[in-house]
Amino acid sequence: MASLRCFLRSGKNAMAALQRSGFHSSAPAAVQMMVRDALNQAMDEELERDERVFLLGEEVAQYDGAYKVSRGLWKKYGDQRIIDTPISEMGFTGIAVGAAFAGLRPICEFMTFNFSMQAIDQVINSAAKTCYMSAGFQAVPIVFRGPNGSSAGVAAQHSQCFAAWYAHCPGLKVVSPWNSEDAKGLLKAAIRDDNPVVFMENELMYGVPFEMSEEALSKDFVLPIGKAKIERPGNHVTLVSHSRCVGHCLDAAAVLAKEGIECEVINLRSIRPMDTDAIEASVMKTNHLVTVEGGWPQFGVGAEICAKIMEGPAFNYLDAPVTRVTGVDIPMPYAKILEDNSVPQIKDIIFSIKKTLNV
Fold first, then answer.
1. Where are the domains of the chain?
2. Which CDD domains would you find in this protein's record (predicted)?
3. C-alpha to C-alpha distance for 192 and 109, rounded to whole angstroms
């Protein structure tokens, strides 16, 4: 045992000596970045790139943000670019929209999209409709961002997914990232867009680390809005999801792969515009479709996908009806056991896939 320890120690010393001499492994170490840090990096880079960009919202400045997404930005850019607001969504959203009319590029943070209901008149009637009503003369380059959907133990008034609500409205782009690359690339695209973008994050994902490619770490990294991504290829069933539920779909796919069922997992990334072509192409390959979302079932994102498939060429390729996995059609309960049974779980996705495949 002593000789083994000496051997291992000498091996470590030799590797350290090689590294000091300039030797490095050919495989670069993967960079892990939490979603909140990816969002922070995106805003930092865009604030630096364009002096018209600024951030405003509750506690975004001196407190570094309620979820620490804006950590360090106030110290770097000051009161003129990172602005703490009163607890008045109606007020500071109106200020942000007016600033966008005047040629600035505001990032308006809601502490949760549930509170955006206080400002829905500004988001819809002022921001979303102005480009059309001005015959294209008045751009409204604004990003509305913050956590959306269910969190943990915060009950009904903090746990609603508004993806379907906002995606219903012409004039808005609606983005729902899952991992760190989504968060950074799509937020940079949203800030640069001349149209209003509703950027829906998820509170439970902020502290989750993901690998970031060398490309994603670049200041030039921007993802196109309106393009989905196949996170896992498969040929038996298509799973379409967005935000946190993408991870649940991947976990379910990993379980089913052990049983010989290969799921193709599509990360929507963008709710409006929706990448219908990617969904149709996958369905034509797998002949089965399951949609997964944390929102309510009625008039939801999954319902829209079902309609698009029914109306398009992929319908003729379906070997079974489309199945939706959604949140339960009730206000979110506070009790944890009820909360867990109110949002999609991995077991629910697996059950629906097997039902769709009749296995």
1. 32-212, 229-357
2. TPP_PYR_E1-PDHc-beta_like (cd07036)
3. 16
Burial of 183 (0-12, 13-18, 19+ CB in 10 A): buried
CATH class of 229-357: alpha beta
264 secondary structure, DSSP code: E
Domains 32-212 and 229-357 alike in fold: yes
Q: Which residues participate in catalysis according to the annotation?
A: 89, 158
Three-state SS letters, 75-118: HHHCCCCEEECCCCHHHHHHHHHHHHHCCCEEEEECCCHHHHHH
Residue 120, both tokens: 């829905």
Gap between the Cα atoms of 92 and 88, Å rounded = 6
pLDDT for 252 equals 98
pLDDT per position as a tens digit, 148-193: 998 888 998 899 999 999 999 999 999 999 999 999 999 999 999 9
Whether 32 and 39 have beta carbons less than 8 Å apart is answered as no
Domain range 32-212, CATH architecture: 3-Layer(aba) Sandwich (3.40)
